[in-house]
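Quick question, first post here. What does this chain look like in 3D?
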Amino acid sequence: MENKVKIARVTLGLTQQELAEKVGVTRQTISLIEKGRYNPTLKLCLEICYAVNQTLDEVFWQERKE
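> Answer (accepted):
Ran it through. C-alpha cells below.
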C-alpha cells in the first residue's frame, strides 16, 4: 500500500521510534508501513493519522488503478 506516513512524520519532526511509541507499535512496524511492505489495520491507520494530525485521506488515500 502506498502512503504518506514518512512525509507526515518528517514534517512534524518525529522519528520512527517516536511515532511508534505514540501509536503503540514497534519502530520496525512503522518502517515497514512507510516502505509499503506492511498493510496496517484500519485502527492503526487512524492512530497514525491522529498522531500526525492529518486525515485518513491525506495519509493513506490511493487512486483507483484501472
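Helices lie at 5-11, 16-23, 27-35, 42-52, 56-60.
The two ends are 16 Å apart (CA to CA).
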